[in-house]
Amino acid sequence: MNLTLNIWRQANANAKGAMHRYSLEGVSEDMSFLEMLDVLNEQLNAKGEEPVAFDSDCREGICGMCGLMINGQAHGPEVTTTCQLHMRSFKDGDEITIEPWRADPFPVVKDLVVDRSAFDRMIQNGGFISANTGSAPDAHAAPVEKKLADLAFDVATCIGCGACVAACPNGSASLFLGAKITHLGSLPQGQPERDTRVVSMVGQHDAEGFGGCTNIGECAAACPKEIPLDVISRLNKDLRTAMAKGY
Amino acid sequence: MVPTNQPSVQTSDDAAGYYTLGAPLVDELAPTGPINTRWQRRKFENRLVNPANRRKLDVIIVGTGLAGGAAAATLGEAGYNVKSFCYQDSPRRAHSIAAQGGINAAKNYKEDGDSVERLFYDTVKGGDYRSRESNVYRLAEVSANIIDQCVAQGVPFAREYGGLLDNRSFGGVQVSRTFYARGQTGQQLLIGAYQAMERQVAAGTVTQYTRHEMLEVIIADGRARGIVTRDMVTGAIETHLADVVVLASGGYGNVYFLSTNAMGSNVTAAWRAHRKGAYMANPCYTQIHPTCIPVTGDHQSKLTLMSESLRNDGRIWVPKKAEDCGKDPRDIPEEDRDYYLERIYPSFGNLVPRDIASRQAKNMCDEGRGVGPAVKEVQPDGTEKMMRRGVYLDFADAIARMGREAVETKYGNLFDMYARITGEDPYVTPMRIYPAVHYVMGGLWVDYHLQTNITGLFCSGEANFSDHGANRLGASALMQGLADGYFVLPNTIREYLADGPFEKIDESHPAVVEAKTAVEERIAKFLSIQGERSADSFHKQLGQIMWEYCGMERTEEGLKKAIGLIRDLKAEFWTNLKVLGTADSLNQSLEKAGRTIDFIELGELMCIDALNRRESCGGHFRAESQTEDGEALRHDDEFAYVAAWEFGGEDANPILHKEDLIYTAIEMKQRSYK
């Protein structure tokens, strides 16, 4: 198929960016979206134009490194990661607009590459269980109800891609945060730090400049791992409880 | 300690003229005594570093996967001053995250006869007796601690209704020792290590450097004392100095271009160390995984693994007649189908080990009985041919027997993934699979303490060579990464650091200046060539050569041809590379150029190693070494050794050092699955 691509090009964080228009021919429907960009980049390189910078790594939907706004939707029209979106989701003659994640706490590094280190800083502020290496009790010492173990797993599948933030009109990272709060807070091992964790992580979330949640739900709709909106309720509940206790 | 085997004596010399024989190699730190006491005694014998002194010691760790992330978390927690580097935008993206199946541990929670001894035995046997028994025993021994550690961190392993951990069996093993978190065990374990590491970042013991690529190791006065990195955003070439350097930079399967590895996985950290004197051991040992989704065209950038568990219920076949290969498989009657694994290996059937399943799939396609779309294959000599590269993995019988719902419950997520990638419904038409490069067992040579032959340079996880022999068992990669990171390195590195802190060196030290200058000149060189071809195009061509001649099946003639082709490719690279953009900005073409030339050099060494090893073992099948039935034939009398290669110099032959593999706790046996 033949496509017209409108791609955001920006030389670096401080440069002014602009949309550039490219036509691309002979795209196969078996290509992933990123492979389509690889083909474009080979052509640009051959013509002496610098290839489009974009992030990707595992290309099997799990590392969370890729992420593009495609026609205004985070990761494009399907509920999946950009690397698992295939060109059969498009048709011959389509015009496709490709932009980086849009959110102040995710500044553009170059072209379609953004800086998501704010997510790491939120994890640094309590997104863990303090367990020193080598002194752990036998794994069977604390049984975990299957229902809770399954819930913890369901939300622990968050890949930290940032689609939730990019999709949110407020630029909120509440889904990312809620997933981690729910994951660790559902397990017995996570209880001792449950209150301090939520207060600390939410504090960092706000300090990074992410917006507040107004329950629009775009985050859950865009999440490639289908993290449910419930985790935000859980986040809010844990936060209220912790604050009521004076944390 | 009575040896059960004699040192091997190599009589063949297929690689004559391609290498120089060096002095034999001995692991000076190899422990002795009863095998089940070796690690305990060594932990006790290794000296301690008191907590106040740990703060004065700087540790550099390259890579943030299970091996690197776990080591950073543990050493940081111990109080050392750790600097952690990764090329991704966050440590959480390391490729360990993509591991699906599970992690082995000798917990014997099922009381089904498992034990440390049995895990040890299975691993050595599975690796075709080409790993070190002391290292493997230690791996089995600490495996149980790994599960405890991860559960304490909040890793959500699968649980039974009683609240206890669930296990399954994996990779043809007869006990249930694999712990899992659905099909995303690697992700959950990595997130656990990452969170533990971020906790140390907050505590100030670990400094993380993301989007930093290590491009050189600094060796001053005979010790590894630091690294040179490139800040991939600003292009700044930085030097980082320390008392010890750990490479935990993963495997090099991307030498084949198409593999199940992440696109960014590369050999540069290890290869730069190799060029500085670190030995590269058993580089030709590659694991080919039989159940990947086939290639669809020359645009393909990577291959996706389908879990091996599908072989429990799916039946593998190809048409008996080549003329049926283009037909709808549902129109091919039962009598015209060849269930070749069930035919050749009646006792194991579709569950034969990875190397055997892979090789037979290739044989079927080579015979012209492959299925799926015919894809243009560019031959390494430049000619093209159309080939069907796929075999059917058919669930029709399973659906008839168990019902569609049961199949959905068991394999639904895999079926969905397949449908997403191929656009076909695997409930209706059989899946197509084909082998792909998955993991490498070769890597930097290390002693029992995971130290390379360069003093102060350690190497852990997939980047080292020691634990998997010629073939890794399923669910053992995660086990090794975490064993090294959480439990082995922290206990061996302290023996080294007990002599530190070492004399301070600074930026003006000649070794630092030399390493930094070398990196700058190399980058300038890439940008100055201004030829016609992208780094990717060289990488793809290398991959075709490697897959064709150093893939599942290897011959003396093919390997010699490949070495010639790779040498030509290397020469062309240095005269015809085209990298646009600048050095002082984010420049992905420049990153690829550096990695590609390192892969090219590694590819040549892999072929020489494969050429020398005239035996079939693990995923490495030398056509000249097979039984009358066409099965792999090992030659313990000639090759029961680790091949550790020393860099011989630019355009000079590499130097082969042999480390004998002498077993005392285990006896070598031939594998048979018929």
Describe the fold and architecture:
Chain A: Its EC number is 1.3.5.1. The complex is a heterodimer of chains A (247) and B (674). Chain A contains 8 helices and 7 strands, in the order ββαβββββααααααα. Chain A has 247 residues and is α+β, with helices and mostly antiparallel strands. In chain A, β3 and β4 form a beta hairpin. Chain A is elongated. Chain A starts with a strand and ends with a helix. Chain B has 674 residues and is of the alpha/beta class. Helix content of chain B is 35%, strand content 16%. Chain B is built from 17 helices and 24 strands. In chain B, the strands form 7 sheets. A 5-stranded mixed beta sheet of chain B has the order 1-24-23-11-19. In chain B, strands 6-3-2-10-20 form a 5-stranded parallel beta sheet. In chain B, strands 12-18-17-13-14 form a 5-stranded antiparallel beta sheet. Chain B is globular, with a radius of gyration of 24 Å.
Question: How do you describe this structure in short?
Answer:
With 247 residues, chain A is an alpha+beta fold. Chain A has helices at residues 33-47, 117-124, 146-156, 163-167, 174-185, 194-207, 218-222, 230-244, and strands at 3-9, 18-24, 69-70, 73-74, 95-99, 108-110, 113-114. Helices cover 34% and strands 11% of the residues of chain A.
